[in-house]
Amino acid sequence: MKMFLDGKWVDRDEKIEVLDPFDNSLIDTVPSGNDRDVETALAAAVRGFQITKKMTVYDRAQILFRAARLIEERLEEFAVIIARESSKTINEARKETSRCVNTISCSAEEAKRILGETIPFDSFPGGEKRRGYYYRFPIGVVLAITPFNDPLNLVAHKLGPAIAAGNSVILKPATVTPLSAIKLVEVLLEAGLPPQAIQLITGYGSVIGDPLVADERVRMISFTGGVEAGKHIAARAGIKKIGMELGSNSPVIVWKDADLQLAVESCVSGAFWAAGQNCIGVQRLLVHNDIYDEFKSAFVERTGKYRIGDKMKEETNMGPMITETEAKRVEKWVNDAVAGGAKLLTGGKRRGALYEPTVLENLPADATIHHEEVFGPTVNLYQVDDLDEAIKEANSLPYGLLAAIFTTSIDVAFKASYDLDCGGVMINDSTDYRLDSMPFGGVKYSGLGREGLKFSLQEMTEPKVVCFNLPGM
Ligand code: NAP
Q1: How many angstroms separate the alpha carbon of residue 364 from the centre of ligand 1?
Q2: What are the pLDDT tens digits along the chain (473 aa)?
Q3: Which fold has domain 250-435?
Q4: Which of 146, 154, 224 has the most ligand 1 atoms within 8 A of CB, as the residue to mutate?
Q5: Which atom in ligand 1 lies closest to the alpha carbon of residue 210?
């Protein structure tokens, strides 16, 4: 496939192979973008903004509504691309595609709700004869940098609101999963997006990242990815707006009065969805002492029934990790934890990029898998017997995207929802729940700002005040 620059699909002699992580078969190639491509993208995006900022809300919304319909009509086609290039099973890929339809449709709806307000200038002496308001204007060129784990919907979370706001966009998708993003751009163009409104540059972040990020023509960087790349980008961005959706190490408390069956089902799915490569995947399960043994045996038994393997088979529950290198990293983190005293309850074996769903307990405090984001199919069990202690433990790491608690007590639920330090608390659900229109983002190293279409639109627009001085009034 090709990249899309200055209104044209273009190729380069230097190519990047896109492989299926299940069997390393070649799916396609994409051009490896270079410095000249970066300059082409930046110059074209500036020209594109002169067009997009003049488009009516009606036109922007219609393009997005049409794109959403096209994706819905081609749901299976999109799902197959996601399932082949990423870790997801075909069923997980179908779900991601249907969420993408919702993301793009909600962006279209939100385009119609970019509102301002009148300002009470007479609320301070000197303003008696002043009248005015503010409205929101598009920020300009948005640089969207996206990760591999939701290769379609997380791209939609940037393109949808950027287009709805009237911005032009430069998209740099993850190098291992660029095909879903390319297909999404094709559909947006088919739906009537002016070609100048979007630049799609494929290539390594380590090569094209810095010149894109540092350029002053970019007015906002909307980044989703890991903390290390996030820090690197923030250090080079200069004076421009930055939105960061980063990683986590999600805690879930299972209180003594919880519905255990519900907790087990939700947490197994939440831990192993997309082979655990999920920013809101369950990583730490803090389980009350009174129910620890019962919960543990049910959780381990359910995990053991997970079918792993060929992503294209309907019955497969979990596919491979994104690369064998990543699976080896997780294997090492598990082995190191076990060498340091952790107990392996199930899993722990690797075949190529396939890593078994794995459950550990008795984690030493210095184990990497305890305090870092694992981004793999492993989960840690901890015993707690006091709510303050459980919340303190949940808050003890420098991440805070989503947290969760299973309880039937309203008091416990309320206390946890106020005291857990994060961007959202799920009650009687695992952390792995996101409605695409809800405000989504984290505290600490989990991010800056919020996504979720209405909230992304706030980030991607700026308020402009208009004040009339009316001496004749
Ligand atoms: P990553 O390695 O940080 O890469 C993310 C994107 O950044 C890729 O497009 C990558 O390009 C690019 N990149 C890397 N270095 C860059 C640089 N110096 N300048 C500019 N761009 C650069 O993350 P990943 O492995 O794809 O995704 C996993 C991470 O994303 C996890 O930490 C996960 O928690 C996080 N995530 C967060 C959310 C959220 O909403 N909070 C959602 C999903 C994932 P290349 O592919 O070319 O390296």
Answers
A1: 28
A2: 999 999 999 999 999 999 999 999 999 999 999 999 999 999 999 999 999 999 999 999 999 999 999 999 999 999 999 999 999 999 999 999 999 999 999 999 999 999 999 999 999 999 999 999 999 999 999 999 999 999 999 999 999 999 999 999 999 999 999 999 999 999 999 999 999 999 999 999 999 999 999 999 999 999 999 999 999 999 999 999 999 999 999 999 999 999 999 999 999 999 999 999 999 999 999 999 999 999 999 999 999 999 999 999 999 999 999 999 999 999 999 999 999 999 999 999 999 999 999 999 999 999 999 999 999 999 999 999 999 999 999 999 999 999 999 999 999 999 999 999 999 999 999 999 999 999 999 999 999 999 999 999 999 999 999 999 999 98
A3: Aldehyde Dehydrogenase; Chain A, domain 2 (3.40.309)
A4: 224
A5: 19
Instruction: List the end-to-end C-alpha distance of the chain, in Å, as a whole number.
Output: 63
Half-sphere exposure of 455 (CA within 13 A, CB side): 16
Q: Six-digit token pair at 213? A: 């990020």
CATH of 3-246+446-466, picked from 1.10.3720.10, 3.40.605.10, 3.40.50.720, 3.30.70.100, is 3.40.605.10
In contact, 301 and 312? CB cutoff 8 Å: no
How far does residue 40's CA lie from ligand 1's centre (Å)?
Answer: 23
Q: Which residues of 340-360 are buried (b: 16+ CB within 10 A; e: fewer)?
A: bebebbbbbebeebbbbbbbb
Ligand 1 within 6 A of CB of 215: no
pTM for this structure?
0.98
